[in-house]
Amino acid sequence: xxxxxxxxxxxxxxxxxxxxxxxxxxxxxxxxxxxxxxxxxxxxxxxxxxxxxxxxxxxxxxxxxxxxxxxxxxxxxxxxxxxxxxxxxxxxxxxxxxxxxxxxxxxxxxxxxxxxxxxxxxxxxxxxxxxxxxxxxxxxxxxxxxxxxxxxxxxxxxxxxxxxxxxxxxxxxxxxxxxxxxxxxxxxxxxxxxxxxxxxxxxxxxxxxxxxxxxxxxxxxxxxxxxxxxxxxxxxxxxxxxxxxxxxxxxxxxxxxxxxxxxxxxxxxxxxxxxxxxxxxxxxxxxxxxxxxxxxxxxxxxxxxxxxxxxxxxxxxxxxxxxxxxxxxxxxxxxxxxxxxxxxxxxxxxxxxxxxxxxxxxxxxxxxxxxxxxxxxxxxxxxxxxxxxxxxxxxxxxxxxxxxxxxxxxxxxxxxxxxxxxxx
Amino acid sequence: xxxxxxxxxxxxxxxxxxxxxxxxxxxxxxxxxxxxxxxxxxxxxxxxxxxxxxxxxxxxxxxxxxxxxxxxxxxxxxxxxxxxxxxxxxxxxxxxxxxxxxxxxxxxxxxxxxxxxxxxxxxxxxxxxxxxxxxxxxxxxxxxxxxxxxxxxxxxxxxxxxxxxxxxxx
Lengths: 424, 170
Hints:
Order of helices and strands of chain B: HHHHHEHHEEEEH
CATH topology of the largest domain in chain A: Rossmann fold
Largest interface: A-B, 55 and 41 residues
Largest sheet of chain B: 5 strands, mixed
CATH topology of the largest domain in chain B: Glutaredoxin
Helix content of chain A: 40-55%
Structural class of chain A: alpha/beta
Oligomer: heterodimer
Number of strands of chain A: 8
CATH class of the largest domain in chain B: Alpha Beta
CATH superfamily of the largest domain in chain A: NADH-ubiquinone oxidoreductase 51kDa subunit
CATH architecture of the largest domain in chain A: 3-Layer(aba) Sandwich
């Protein structure tokens, strides 16, 4: 099968240089677009490919771009931001793309900027990604030297400045409006929508924020066309996706597979199933802020719709596996500690509700939980559900909790009844 | 407010060095407004001074022409800006979900045994500070940690201690 995202990765694990990327056909999509396609044609191609945002929400990328004001009277400068703030617990797919093929991202960014008419682009990189930072700096210098970034790219009338922003570090920066505040040098609290960033984003100008994996799909789409891209997925699904598995499996890792690949193929054929002596109890299909699924869900295809119907989300597509020797209460406590710490503190339900949730779970895990705590936790799942908070952080935090309360109820009850963690 | 800070704490740290200013000015070319350089300035000052003192906050505020409270608000928001002194090398030990399942607490305990520090503490010789960090995005090679600006993965207690000893010798 074709693997447009990872197919050119080098065996030794190092990043493709500009020369190597070009030898593999790199920057030909950019040449094709700048010499023979209008901005609208690039946008229409991405729309027709039905590329959907790979950061977790799955919003159609072409539609997102089409909301940017266009034409001669559109406000400038416009901004494009590549969201490399990969901080979702259990997600490790964007790092792979940044470290192995940085020019695929840069070419995708330049094409996206061309499509929306952006003047300036930023890569918003989390501060902990020290190796990706080194690799991106080198790739940016190469691209600038070769006239791929700056004025009159490849001799065309299109120019783009491209900068690297290293984040100060906070999970909420992954939320696109919080990211924009961080880029402006402020505390990364989310902004109210509307206005949407496409109308009024960074410094009040039209801004598009796209995930790294999303942008890495753009050059292959422009090079090979929307029909080719749509054909890569299984059934109705379009393109490929990086899927990953971590936890007590034989071969943890990430693989590029057709969109719509059954979870069982990822878990068994790629990750090799559970390690000797461990049994699968459940898994989070798309990072720490998705609902648990059970072994009975392994035959579902990895699509936004099918995982949604099963009560969870495909999210980042990186599975976190819960084995039978790990305490589900402890696992959820670990996640809620993370979310409580990373709440930006802007709205009350999240700022106060998440630490409260964490305390209840600490009590249960520590053997001092009370039977009525379970009802309080369920109440929190409702109070911090979708639509009750300013952004999606708290609803995301409630997803593993509400599903654990449903699927692993007897574990919570045993902790409370025996006043001890049975897994300790 | 910033001048009060400066007088109270002495002059030495109250101004940005030429080098720090030059680095901030290089970043300034990437952003449309100076006040937006807050995070860059904090990172640059921290690189030079190890951490961000009250004086450093005041100096950045003065230099960028924004309020010290504004800079303080930004400095305390971000996980990687240190508002207290840290050791020469900071160990950022991932304690998110996969690393937790695969033994980061064992690593933490071993660091406690060997170096006598827990999260938020610095060794008596000022060499290492241990801090927890959110998911380092290396879950297929868990557990993982950053030591200074170097990323390490597939850690076990012995390997981690050997790595720390090597860092110490550099």
